[in-house]
Amino acid sequence: MSATVITEHGPGQSLLAEQLIVSPYTPSWWTAQVITDIPNDAVGWLVAQGWQITDVEYDETHKPKVPYYTMARESLQNWIILQSLLDHYVMAHNDATTQNAIRYNDIVQSWDGMLDNSQDYFSTQADERNAQALLFLGNLDSYMDKVDTLIGEGEDKFADLETDYDVHDANAQGYLTDLGATELARINEHFDATRAVQVQQLIDKGIYNSAVAVDITARNERDRDEQIQSLNDRLNREKLDNDHKLYEQKLTMRKTLADSKHQAVVEKMNAAAARLSGLSQQQAENLKLMQYFLDERNKLLIGLYSVVERRSDVYPSFSDLVNLTT
Known about the structure:
The chain is mainly alpha-helical. The protein has 5 helices and 3 strands; from the N terminus they run E-H-E-E-H-H-H-H. The protein has helices spanning 40-48, 78-177, 181-205, 210-309, 318-325, and strands at 30-39, 52-59, 66-76. A 3-stranded antiparallel β-sheet has the order 1-3-2. Helix 2 (78-177) runs antiparallel to helix 4 (210-309). The two termini are 75 Å apart.
């Protein structure tokens, strides 16, 4: 699985042209003034106003001669200075406004681009995450289906065990049904033969009579009954012992089946728990990923809003211009 390539994002800042400050001074701020024929009594006041004497002429028609002065001074033209300063302040203010707006817009556009790239990256991550989740859940379903198949096969085997034992039980009961028949036939045959031999011996000896024959027959039947009773007792003991063995086998088999069914239930519960755990883990990871996306996006938004909130552009102050001109 390859990593997602993060989209490049430049700073998005344009270069600002450097605006050097130059002095607004110009010689036109100053003007030269010349006045002539100033009488002597006005010179003192004019000197106090900044005028300087540049020449003296005398009126010789009066005795004594009367001086008349030529005076000059250089003075600032306030309205020209004010207009010049005002023009420079307006230019500086507009330039600062333009530069700040450019920088501010660059920052906002950069943040917007960052948000767009981040959203694209988040969307790509979400798509890859969904694809991985589908792959994981598909593999989990396949794995759990195989587990279910194995559990089902195990249950079928245990079901076959119960069927096989029922067949075995029926066969064993069939074997016990005919048990002792051969021995009983042998006993009857033996005592029939013995009685025939004894009767023949009596006949051969010439002592056969009904009383003796009855006694021999009775004794023969008694011995036969004892043998048959002994056989029946032994057969009953064997059948009882076999019944006990069959019961123990059936009990063991049923206990084994019960344990296997319980184990199958436990395995199914564990399989279901594993499936739910996988789904829960997948959901938890999706929630973490979504939380990460939202957190990172909120950080970007907070950064952008902080830039907007803290914007405090400083421009040339017109109050300084007022203070300068008053």
